[in-house]
Amino acid sequence: MVGLQSRWRYLLMFLGIQLVVMALLSREGYHKRVTYFIRIFRKPDLTSSEHHNRTAVTVAAGDVYANLFNLSKSHSHGDNMPYCPETSPLIGGPIHVSFPSGLTLAEVQRKNPLVIRGGRYRPPNCEARHKTAIIIPHRNREHHLKFLLYYLHPFLQRQQLSYGIYVIHQAGNYTFNRAKLMNVGFREAMREEDWDCLFFHDVDLIPEDDRNLYTCDANPKHAAIAMDKFGYKLPYKMYFGGVSALSPLHYLKMNGFPNNYWGWGGEDDDIGIRVSLAGMYITRPSLKTGRYKMIKHKLDKGNDENPKRFNMLAKTRQTWKQDGMNTLEYEVVSRDYLPLYANITVNIGTETGLHPLPQSPHAKDEQKPAANASARR
Ligand SMILES: *[C@@H]1O[C@H](CO)[C@@H](O)[C@H](O)[C@H]1NC(C)=O
Ligand SMILES: *[C@@H]1O[C@H](CO)[C@@H](O)[C@H](O)[C@H]1NC(C)=O
Ligand SMILES: *[C@@H]1O[C@H](CO)[C@@H](O)[C@H](O)[C@H]1NC(C)=O
Ligand SMILES: *[C@@H]1O[C@H](CO)[C@@H](O)[C@H](O)[C@H]1NC(C)=O
Ligand SMILES: *[C@@H]1O[C@H](CO)[C@@H](O)[C@H](O)[C@H]1NC(C)=O
């Protein structure tokens, strides 16, 4: 009888404690309280330092600059630096991407003290295993470029790459030609440096995971496989748009990209077809790491939908050897080596050539790009 009574008493005490715990949990917030109760059962010194570290990690999680604080302090380019490790210890996984309204290029510069003129960087305390050039076709997108630079510089530094960023700026107002600007970027970048990988990068796509390595594979790589715009899925199997990576060998093997896609659309599919026509495959990162956030924007002037693209795509098999790097023509207007990127401004001409002959008013009307379509890029 006595035993039963004391058992009841223990049960009641136990329930009472539980009630108190539950009340505290619901009042003070679950996390804080759980940590508090766990701490009671731990050695004080151990828990406090762990708690501290956990806080630091939580604050830093997803911040693309988080792992780079130390780099600026140990600046020591030597002749006999060891190679960087196969896997960079600075890689942190998912990156939180947002677009703060007050960001300036000066701020991006301040946060990237080791980037030198022309947007070049080398890891300060090891010899990079990879040399990657980033090629960004551009016109009228300074606002996007600023955000891309803010994220891309630390992203590449975390991967311990030796890199350079080339903005290929199309001069004039004629219809935009993304693929031809990439060809220009390839030639201009390779003139300057023996890059072993080139990333062809739309200005409005921000990578969201630094395990998406900006290095080249044995085959051309399509990196932007999971964009928020497409629900973080590949829109279709042959898709090769947004961000892709080719080694110089890959690039020349497929005669580069087409020069004759003026306006929005088609050129990325043409490039995908070229890859297979040249006997190569498309490789891809995993859906988990090949994630990108697209900066939203309004319609672009001078980048209307290309109405000829379906006809052109049907003929890629016949045209790829006659149109590409071997027929590339352009004029460099200026080369500016700015603190965060090289601005290569080029005249790439029009559909009728680099220096179109003066045309009759009638012909001019026909050549004029439609000023008014619903295309976006
Ligand atoms: C994290 O913990 C380590 C010891 O494990 C300590 O040396 C370091 O200072 C802590 N970091 C922070 C930010 O408190
Ligand atoms: C950062 O630098 C501090 C001292 O300056 C050093 O103790 C710490 O280990 C470094 N951290 C990393 C990740 O290199
Ligand atoms: C491009 O267009 C802008 C305004 O629409 C004009 O001011 C400028 O002169 C044009 N540039 C050329 C090279 O035609
Ligand atoms: C690149 O240089 C050209 C020519 O100076 C200039 O018009 C253009 O705004 C520059 N673009 C960028 C992104 O710096
Ligand atoms: C563009 O379209 C709008 C309405 O669709 C029209 O009012 C305008 O005149 C067009 N502009 C040109 C340059 O065609």
Describe the structure.
There is one protein chain. By secondary structure, the chain is an alpha/beta fold. It has two domains: 10-60, no CATH class; 66-367, Spore Coat Polysaccharide Biosynthesis Protein SpsA, Chain A (Alpha-Beta Complex). It has helices spanning 2-28, 30-40, 44-60, 105-111, 142-158, 178-192, 248-253, 267-277, 309-314, 316-319, 361-367; strands at 120-121, 131-138, 162-170, 197-201, 205-207, 221-222, 226-227, 243-246, 291-294, 331-337, 342-347. Strands 1, 2, 3, 4, 6, 8, 10 and 11 form an eight-stranded mixed β-sheet that branches. Strands 5-9-7 form a three-stranded mixed β-sheet. Helix 5 (142-158) links the parallel strand 2 and strand 3. Helix 1 crosses helix 2. The chain starts with a helix and ends in a 10-residue tail after the last helix. One 2-acetamido-2-deoxy-beta-D-glucopyranose (NAG) binds next to loops. The site of one 2-acetamido-2-deoxy-beta-D-glucopyranose has 4 residues, from helix 3. Residues 222-298 form the Galactosyltransferase C-terminal domain. Responsible for the synthesis of complex-type N-linked oligosaccharides in many glycoproteins as well as the carbohydrate moieties of glycolipids.
Rg calculated over all Cα atoms: 27 Å
Report the average pLDDT across residues: 85
CATH-derived topology of the largest domain: Spore Coat Polysaccharide Biosynthesis Protein SpsA, Chain A
* Largest sheet descriptor: 8 strands, mixed
Name of the CATH first level of the largest domain: Alpha Beta
CATH architecture classification name of the largest domain: Alpha-Beta Complex
3D shape: elongated
SS-derived structural category:
alpha/beta
As residue ranges, the low-confidence spans are 43-59, 363-377
Separate helix tally: 11
CATH superfamily placement of the largest domain? Spore Coat Polysaccharide Biosynthesis Protein SpsA, Chain A
Give the terminus-to-terminus CA distance.
82 Å
- For the record, the count of structural domains works out to 2
**Helix proportion range:** 25-40%
Q: How many strands?
A: 11
Strand coverage percent: 5-15%
Give a list of the ligands.
Answer: 2-acetamido-2-deoxy-beta-D-glucopyranose
